[in-house]
Amino acid sequence: MYYKEENDLYLREGSIRYYDLQVINSYEIFFLSIQFFKSKQDFTFRKHCHPAYEIIIPKNAGYKCLLNGQTLSVDTGELLLVQEGDWHQDILRDDTEFTVISFAINNPENSDNSNPGNANVKRKLFKDKTVAINQKVLFPHHDLSNTLLELLSATGAAQNDSSTYYVLDGIFRAFFWKIIFLFPEEQLAPGLVKNMSNESAKQQLLRIFEKNIHTKLDIPQLASCMNMSQSQLAHKCKEIIGESPARAFSRYKLKRAESYLKDSHIAIKQIGDMLGFDDQFHFSRTFKRFYGISPAAYRKKH
Questions:
Q1: Which end of the chain is more exposed for a tag (fewer CB within 10 A), N or C?
Q2: What is the pTM of this model?
Q3: pLDDT for res 23
């Protein structure tokens, strides 16, 4: 478990939290639909340019297509990821069955958040000029990916109302981040690789912060734990968190101090001691520098 909080009153443990990872993920995924397709005879679907992304997962043998001019077979145990802007044409045999999951990637700089399906999507998942065969990958049928697909299929096939969309959207986002890691990194778009690299670095940094939250942590020690030089650490921390390593660690501690001040009756001096401050004056001065108010005044206010 990542998150752990312990004091005289209680012990609380849990998974990594959303607000520990916010800001770094620039790929905002939106579920559009899930459809179940079965052909009634041999036929070729019209050639079309994809307005959104699609994941195609065959249920039985026989799924073929043209993807950007290349003939491609996708067998059971594989999935195909079609990008927005790809030219696609299904070549189907009688009784071919497959699942199609459509989604969009929101470009936060140029999108209509009220209608994510119409967002002006510019982010890519694969490198430019990726050959079609590299857009399919083996699909693991014995791990969480398959469980999530079963949940998507069962929820999407049931009679539902508009609120079901939010359930499907949540399940799909988990499914997407499971399967995108199945593709080799060298085939993925540099922006996506950087995004995942930054997320990994931030998770590592936060784990170190949590491990040392009751002690002091100097910059050389932190850089060593991250396998970086001090200048590399400063640059990476600024990129993924927006501030220096020292300030980020102080802010992390003070976020915990906030919860103690609001949700417990632990003495302010004890809170400072628990979080590794030199003394109550050091804790109060640091807290006021960040929040513009003393710990005592903050507790009284909240």
A1: N
A2: 0.61
A3: 42
